[in-house]
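User: My collaborator sent over this chain with a note saying "see what the structure looks like." That's all I know about it. Can you take a look?
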Amino acid sequence: MQCVHKLSRDETFRDMGCWQSVHRLSRDETFRDTGCWQSVHKLRRDETFRGTGCWQSVYTLRRDETFRDTGCWQSVHRLSRDETFRDTGCWQSVHKLRRDETFRDTGCWQSVYTLRRDETFRDTGCWQCVHKLSSDETFCDTEC
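Assistant: Without extra context I'll predict from the sequence alone. Here is the result:
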């Protein structure tokens, strides 16, 4: 389940197993997933993560590249301006989203759900429902 946790300006989440704790990141830090946990890795300006297996390594993306999940790993897929990813099973296909659409996870797949301006997703178990967040709220995962 998820609880609401007020983050200070420089805080983000660090995954340690199945739960997340708050970790202060310096300006150039981001998370690198190695196994089931995340450690801090300094990224260069043009670096991002590419999942290969169950872990992520650093991969330099061109300006128009993003990640497409195919199985348990991610490959690079060029997205047109209005494309984003839709998860169907264990892989992602390209789905054209309208301006107000985003994804709602229901089980192991994602469907399109229209969010109101102040809505975001809250994970409750294996699926996501809509939860209104106050201005300074974000989600803290405290369980699988």
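A starting point for your reply to your collaborator: The mean pLDDT is 41.
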